[in-house]
Amino acid sequence: MRQALVNPTVTRSTIRADVGVAIVPQTISRHLAEANLKSKHPFRALPLTPKHRQLRLQWCQARSMWNVTDWQKVVFSDESRFVLGTDDNCVWVWRRPGERYNSH
Fold this sequence. Notes:
The protein is mostly helical. 38% of the residues lie in helices and 0% in strands. The protein contains five helices and no strands. This is Transposable element Tcb2 transposase. InterPro entries: RNaseH_sf (IPR036397), Transposase_Tc1-like (IPR002492). It comes from Trichonephila clavipes (Golden silk orbweaver). One of its GO terms (molecular function) is DNA binding. Pfam families: HTH_Tnp_Tc3_2.
């Protein structure tokens, strides 16, 4: 429990190795749950404060009259995925209609 409080990203296998006792991962999870520690996904982004919202609104209002040429000079670095070229490194597979899996 102390390890999980000090380092929230510690894994059950790390805890198990540090304890030095043969223990199953479910037991570790159960003990952590009894201490009100549950496995959750971390926040991807912090919630916006009223000040952040105000600054975003001001930024948008200052650029409300921009034309296409002005916007073409802007790069947004949010968490969206986009591809500038034609290859997105995704493997595509050709299939016939109704064919779901072909081992060849």
